[in-house]
Design brief:
The protein is built from seven helices and six strands, in the order ββββαααβααβαα. By secondary structure, the protein is mainly alpha-helical. The longest helix has 39 residues.
């Protein structure tokens, strides 16, 4: 790795500690830490603060501010559209693997917020890692591949119960229901009075 000497601190550092200037096609003469300190001290000067106040009153600054505001509204609208598209895609996939219904195949729970696609034979984590996808990317993969077999709709409760029953988890979990550690007592499980803090 190449090294370079900073013109301010006079220390020899790796070239990665110097910012690269594209239009000059070379690295800066100051290291990143010295450059940051240089700009911090510059921004504290009264001359810089006066310049900023004057610039904010110019026509150019106001036009740029309006443009940024419009872009901000456009980005917000785009995020809303993408959120709706993701909801529609998830509902479409749930309908297919739920055999026409958006509900858990085991218990019948029908709130889509807590439903997800489960690998019937297990190994979902390995499969997603092999595909290098996660979350909505996996749902998109299912749709692009014409909804392959081997998947089902489960709620999160049934997902975890299936993991424990089939020993799909990586660490041992006690599958006995309603068991609590000995350190917990009935008194510790009671809800406090709403007026107590």
């Amino acid at each position: 790795m190449k090294n370079k000497t900073c013109n301010i601190c006079r220390q020899t550092k790796p070239i990665s500690d110097f910012s690269f200037v594209k239009n000059r096609n070379r690295h800066m003469n100051y290291c990143k830490s010295c450059n940051n300190e240089k700009f911090k001290s510059y921004r504290k000067r009264k001359s810089y603060k006066d310049y900023r106040k004057k610039y904010q009153q110019t026509k150019k600054y106001k036009e740029v501010a309006k443009k940024c505001k419009r872009q901000g509204h456009a980005k917000k609208a785009h995020r809303e559209r993408m959120r709706e598209c993701r909801k529609m895609m998830k509902g479409e996939i749930m309908l297919h693997y739920g055999k026409g219904q958006i509900r858990c195949c085991k218990c019948g729970f029908d709130n889509i917020k807590a439903l997800s696609i489960d690998h019937i034979s297990g190994g979902g984590t390995k499969h997603r890692k092999a595909l290098k996808v996660s979350g909505m990317q996996f749902y998109n993969w299912l749709r692009k591949n014409d909804y392959p077999a081997g998947f089902q709709v489960l709620c999160m409760n049934c997902q975890f119960i299936k993991r424990v029953d089939n020993k799909e988890h990586t660490r041992s979990i006690d599958s006995t229901p309603n068991t609590l550690p000995s350190c917990l007592h009935e008194t510790s499980l009671k809800h406090p009075n709403k007026h107590e803090f």
